[in-house]
Write a structure and sequence with these properties.
With 182 residues, the protein is mainly α. The protein contains eight helices and two strands; from the N terminus they run H-E-H-H-H-E-H-H-H-H.
Amino acid sequence: MSKLIDAQTPAVASHGGIDWRKVFAFPNPVNEYSARITAGLVVVLSVATLVTGLLTGLGWGLAVIALGFWLRVLFGPRISPFGILSVKVLTPILGKKRLVAGPPKRFAQGIGAAISTAAAILFAAGLAPGAWILLAILIVAASLESFAGFCLGCTIFGFLQRRGFIPEDICEACNNISLRRA
């Protein structure tokens, strides 16, 4: 069984150095409800950014969205405002827990980081229509996750793993249903 990373343990190793694996740790497993709430927050900010961008020509939220994705990809939910809000505040209020594998969720966050970064770059380069198209794609993917529980990035992760592009040991629970936690 794959090792579970405890995101709450300090990043200082016993020999006094920094344990970089813990600094850049992503939780495994992940509460699916927290992931869905985070996706919902991304939808809200993305729709607000798209509407204000189309009406005013300002792309203020693109960099914020990209930064949020990068924070979640690199550090999990520990320092991402949306991650903290969903994991520490909103999910406990909801009171639901369904654990799913972490690596596919991190992969999905990586896709979000790539798309939102590309949108911010396109906007900065004066190619706003391309930025808005990418943001609309992000809204669709985050909406599927939040409202339907369908993680497009996780589906792509599974496809790539079945084709051998992602090693099986990255996510044993993805292949072996007996390792999944309920």
